[in-house]
Design goal:
221 residues; alpha/beta; two-stranded antiparallel ribbon; 19% strand
Length: 221
């Protein structure tokens, strides 16, 4: 079944691993690759086209255009990149938090209604090819560690938000480890995602089927 997929990302973030043929490489280069994956997977791309450049439009116009795209989608892919967050700018003044908020809300437009999107976080490698600015593997505990504090609040709030996550947890070296789909927003490394878009889109959609089991935060703080 074809899905309409919106992609949220920091267009100008150059703190990403270089891709041959893109100089300089920014997060937008990864979106170009994802757009091809979406089309090749018989899905529909609802994100910003590279030649649209809506960043030059007035804020209300951007909001309207992005709102229309998100309303007409069922899946949102958010690219986690090292420089996605402007530290000294309020989150309410940055686009990614609002795009996630729109994606999570149920909305009505022109007589139509939208459901909460499935949301998948694809983590991009930094300029050195590392993912450790956000996630790292713990060999001792055979688990992943996540630095959710480095994310926008609305992304952090929708991770580790399974209501009953304690039921499927364990302690390793004094640290609590959660198993299963403990986050509404599932995270995957780019190297694992590339070439397997359908697999991970299906993971996000399966999680959405159990949305009532999660504490969903839909507002930008």
């Amino acid at each position: 079944m074809a899905n309409k997929i919106f992609v949220s990302y920091k267009h100008s973030d150059s703190n990403v691993f270089p891709i041959p043929g893109f100089s300089p490489t920014t997060a937008r280069a990864y979106v170009d690759k994802i757009e091809r994956m979406i089309v090749e997977g018989d899905h529909i791309y609802k994100g910003e086209k590279d030649n649209e450049n809506i960043g030059t439009l007035a804020d209300p116009t951007i909001s309207s255009k992005l709102g229309d795209k998100i309303f007409d989608s069922s899946v949102t892919i958010v690219l986690i990149s090292k420089g996605m967050k402007e530290t000294y700018t309020s989150e309410k003044e940055q686009w990614i938090p609002w795009e996630i908020s729109y994606s999570l809300k149920e909305q009505s437009r022109a007589g139509g209604n939208s459901k909460t999107n499935a949301v998948l976080a694809v983590v991009l490698p930094d300029e050195n090819g590392s993912y450790e600015y956000f996630m790292s593997y713990n060999e001792v505990c055979n688990s992943m560690n996540y630095k959710t504090e480095n994310l926008f609040q609305i992304l952090s709030d929708n991770m580790f938000n399974l209501k009953d996550k304690e039921a499927n947890s364990r302690i390793c070296n004094g640290v609590k480890i959660y198993n299963g789909y403990y986050s509404y927003i599932y995270s995957v490394k780019w190297e694992n995602f590339e070439g397997k878009l359908n697999t991970f889109i299906n993971v996000a959609l399966e999680i959405r089927k159990s949305i009532d089991k999660y504490e969903i935060v839909k507002i930008v703080k």
